[in-house]
Design goal:
Helices cover 29% and strands 27% of the residues. A 6-stranded antiparallel sheet has the order 15-16-6-5-14-17, with no helix packed on it. Strands 11-12-13 form a 3-stranded antiparallel sheet, with no helix packed on it. The protein has a two-stranded antiparallel ribbon with strand order 1-2. The chain is of the alpha+beta class. The chain is elongated and about 90 Å long. The chain has 3 helices and 19 strands. Helix 1 runs antiparallel to helix 3. The chain starts with a helix and ends with a helix. It folds into 2 domains: 3-78 and 209-248, no CATH class; 82-205, no CATH class. It has helices at residues 3-27, 44-53, 211-248, and strands at residues 37-43, 68-75, 82-84, 91-93, 98-103, 106-110, 116-117, 123-124, 132-133, 136-137, 145-147, 152-155, 158-162, 165-167, 175-176, 181-183, 190-191, 199-201, 203-205.
Length: 249
């Protein structure tokens, strides 16, 4: 393929990947516990060389580019703002940590603390997954519910359970399975000591999407996409004229 055409086309493809991530973020700006996606792009030769060598490379000044490709899709795990709800079954984590949910596919992790009680009195997530405590499912009897900042659960001033939160040394092991639900390889989750936990009852953690930043990035990406699209059209016309001239010879 013609180098100019390939360079412009690869720019359009990379731009589409960035647009998809930005649209996903903006559509989840009000999703509780949502963590924004981030796309990084690199010029294709550097990306290929880094994958072969397992190293990072930097292009030399004056080196001719041959297109870009999406290098990585990562998740921004910065904390989102906490919002007061006064619902005793809403919880937000300040700082590190994830709630554990028991799903049909195994344990999953979330920062979405919109919990409620099912018909059996179990504490479950918004999607109905049991919230895990130190001893498995948490069943809450009728009474005055209070949860301490360390995750201790009290009913009528008597402790009946403890929220089980976990942390990860490398957040990169977490794989986003849905808007605010993550999976991780076995053994990567580390139980948090009660002294490390900071749980806020009656609060929720909103998404960490920076709307102003997303709109600014979207504008920049759209401009770059349009430029690449124009380059493809120009290169196509040039190639068409060249083919026509050769045909006359």
């Amino acid at each position: 393929m013609d180098r100019g055409l390939y360079t412009a086309a690869s720019g359009m493809i990379a731009g589409l990947s960035q647009q998809e991530a930005l649209i996903q973020n903006l559509s989840n700006m009000r999703t509780v516990g949502y963590k924004a996606d981030e796309v990084t792009v690199k010029d294709f030769p550097s990306l290929l060389l880094a994958q072969v060598r397992g190293t990072k490379t930097v292009s030399k000044v004056g080196e001719m580019g041959t297109g870009v490709a999406m290098a990585n899709l990562t998740t921004n795990f910065d904390s989102g703002p906490l919002r007061l709800t006064d619902n005793p079954l809403d919880f937000a984590i300040a700082g590190d940590g994830f709630f554990q949910l028991q799903t049909e596919d195994g344990v999953r992790y979330t920062r979405d603390g919109r919990f409620h009680l099912d018909g059996d009195g179990r504490l479950v997530s918004a999607d109905g997954y049991p919230v895990l405590g130190e001893n498995g499912d948490i069943t809450i009897p009728p009474g005055d519910l209070a949860v301490s900042s360390s995750g201790a659960i009290f009913v009528n001033d008597e402790q009946i359970g403890q929220l089980s939160l976990v942390k990860f040394d490398d957040l990169g092991v977490l794989k986003k399975e849905s808007k605010n639900l993550f999976s991780a390889s076995d053994g990567s989750a580390q139980a948090m000591d009660a002294t490390e936990i900071q749980v806020n009852q009656g609060y929720l953690e909103d998404s960490n999407v920076d709307v102003t930043k997303m709109i600014t990035e979207m504008t920049s990406v759209l401009r770059a996409y349009q430029l690449s699209q124009h380059m493809v059209q120009v290169q196509d016309r040039i190639n068409g004229r060249a083919a026509s001239e050769i045909g006359r010879v």
